[in-house]
Design brief:
By secondary structure, the protein is an alpha/beta fold. The protein has 13 helices and twelve strands. The longest helix has 21 residues, at about 45-65. Bound molecules: nicotinamide-adenine-dinucleotide.
Amino acid sequence: MSTFEHEQVLIRTGQRSGLPIIVAVHSSTLGQAVGGCRVRQYADWRDALADALRLSAGMTAKCAAAGLDNGGGKTVVALPGGVTLTPSLRRDVLHDVADAAASLDGRYATGPDVGTTPDDMTVIGERTGHVLGRPLGRGGSGDSSGPTATGALAALRAVSGHLHGTPDLAGRRVAVVGVGSVGERLARMLTDEGADLLLSDIDPAKRALSAELGAAWDDPEQALTADVDLLVPAALGGVLTELIVPRLRCAAIAGPANNQLATPEVADLLHERGIIWVPDYIAGAGGVTYAVTVELQRGTADEGLGRVQAIENTVTDLLTRARTTGTTPAQAARELIERRLRTAATDPGRR
Ligand SMILES: NC(=O)c1ccc[n+]([C@@H]2O[C@H](COP(=O)([O-])OP(=O)(O)OC[C@H]3O[C@@H](n4cnc5c(N)ncnc54)[C@H](O)[C@@H]3O)[C@@H](O)[C@H]2O)c1
């Protein structure tokens, strides 16, 4: 039997919406658990529960590795097939989520995720203060994709420093796969840095961006296996599979897409091929780092940005540790996370 490692899981039928509302608090060892609210269709509510368990554990890792004094949580609302969210049902769902978060007495704060927006967080904020990611001017820090892109750029600079002795990205060949909210911002930043860019997306309309930035364009399959210095997954998860690893021609991979590895073993396969993989929960931590610093810790925008840029130091330390101990960056990250959690559990004053 596998071990139940979550602190608390709340499952209830929403009083207004009648829909399954699931809030998983994986860990509050480092502080208040944070993690977004996902609203999407599931074939079975138990699949939504599995998602909440997995994603909340991922948030614990993300916060711990980013040096935040926060734990991991997640809300998932399981929409049955055929149910569409009318504006009034959406409002009911959001108020049900707010009440579920409020019932945890500050142990957990929610935020935007797949299927929810910063405006939805304003609606949740009508019933609880335990919410992050409201729009600017409405008590929140606004769209997280800018800070997420800044954090991913910091990770790429660290990789460049590790490989070439300088974080300067001018002239480095970089493939960005997925140019949505985060990928587009990152592509613009990389252009400003003077990188030699290849862009890709399943949406052909995004090709206009490559023309605007003077970047090359290819379909996602080709871009993933392009001969580049840095590969940046910025679309969906699961792109790094056992089948694709032998075909990769990049020196390193670092990007914001969540859950890039199809299986954990892919990290070892990449290591065997000499390809550096920066764990996604570190390269993609800019958004949560900024929101927590500005909204929960009441820091200034500059302080938030400074902490996001510090992802460069985190990745540099991680790659150095991995190199000196002969392990993978993923293993080095796991050890860093376990050390932080152990220290906080035994000596809460030394988080
Ligand atoms: N938005 C944030 O602040 C944030 C924070 C942390 C992590 N992330 C992660 O970063 C990734 C991108 O987030 P986003 O907010 O930019 O999403 P988005 O939906 O705005 O953009 C995703 C882009 O990827 C494209 N795409 C989808 N499937 C593709 C495929 N197979 N190949 C190539 N392109 C494909 C889409 O057409 C779209 O342009 C996601 O994995 C997300 O979970 C986002």
